[in-house]
Amino acid sequence: MSEHLTSLQLDELAAGLAAAPEHLASCPECAQQLAQLRAESAAFLARPEAQQQLGRLLPPPQRRPLGRLLAIALPLAAVLALLLAWPRAHVEDRIKGAPTVALLDGTGNAVTHAAPGTKLTLVVGAAGFPRVTVFTIAEDGTKEPLYAGAVAAGARVPLLKLEVTPGDVTVVAVFERDAESQSVSVRLAVP
After folding, report:
1. Per-residue confidence at 132, pLDDT binned at 50, 70, 90?
2. Count of Cβ atoms closer than 10 Å to residue 15 Cβ
3. Is the Cβ–Cβ distance between 183 and 174 less than 8 Å?
4. Rounded to whole angstroms, how far apart are CA atoms 130 and 90?
5. Cα dist. 129→91, 135, 173 in Å?
6. Beta-carbon count within 10 A of 90 CB
7. What domains does the chain contain, in order, with CATH numbers?
8. Nearest to residue 156, comparing CAs of 121, 186, 119?
9. pLDDT tens, position by position, 16-28
10. What is the 3-state secondary structure (H, E, C) of the chain?
11. pTM value?
12. In this predicted structure, what is the pLDDT of residue 123?
């Protein structure tokens, strides 16, 4: 027969801090001591003085009241609502790069040579400039206005349809934004 359990082992078993060893099942003397320790412990803990002492030693149970949760959640929800609903300045879409001007044929290809009578579309890429003035300069230096006004954002914004007339021309587009201006041109050769 093995040795009896020590007082420390019996105390740990009574407190539920250790698993019961095999010896306990085969030793009535140790089982009786353990039962007696458990009964004495339960009787002591049932006394009001013991409950008061335990109440002073143990921290109060952690409670998460709904009020504390609301005190945190409501201000966070208000801040989030303000951030989402606050009016923002209009963000202007800008095309990267420089402004462009082009003449497109019926299939959408840029052309620099066209026969008289050919129908073309004048398109510009404003690259963040809100206004444009477009005109042609003939070989003899005469200018003819084609378009002047606001231009929408986009890489190829169609402005108007043109019909090619005899004689080479240069199409010039002057883009304006505040005090800044930039001009670009494309030459159209007409045989």
Report:
1. very high
2. 11
3. yes
4. 14
5. 14, 17, 11
6. 6
7. 1-60 (no CATH), 100-188 (2.60.40.10)
8. 121
9. 888 888 888 889 9
10. CCCCCCHHHHHHHHHCCCCCCHHHHHCHHHHHHHHHHHHHHHHHHHCHHHHHHHHHHCCCCCCCCHHHHHHHHHHHHHHHHHHHHCCCCCCCCCCCCCCEEEEECCCCCECCECCCCCEEEEEEECCCCCEEEEEEEECCCCEEEEEEEECCCCCCEEEEEEECCCCCEEEEEEEEECCEEEEEEEEEECC
11. 0.49
12. 92
Supply the pLDDT for residue 144: 92
- Output 95 or 150, whichever has higher pLDDT: 150
**Is the sign of the CA dihedral 76, 77, 80, 86 positive or negative?**
negative
Q: How far apart are CA 144 and CA 138, in angstroms?
A: 8
Cα–Cα dist 31/49, whole Å: 29
Token digits of residue 156: 């190829």
Q: List beta partners, residue 173.
A: 134, 184
Phi/psi at 187 (nearest 5 deg)?
A: -100, 135
Mean pLDDT over each residue of the chain, to the nearest integer: 84
Both tokens assigned to 180: 């800044």
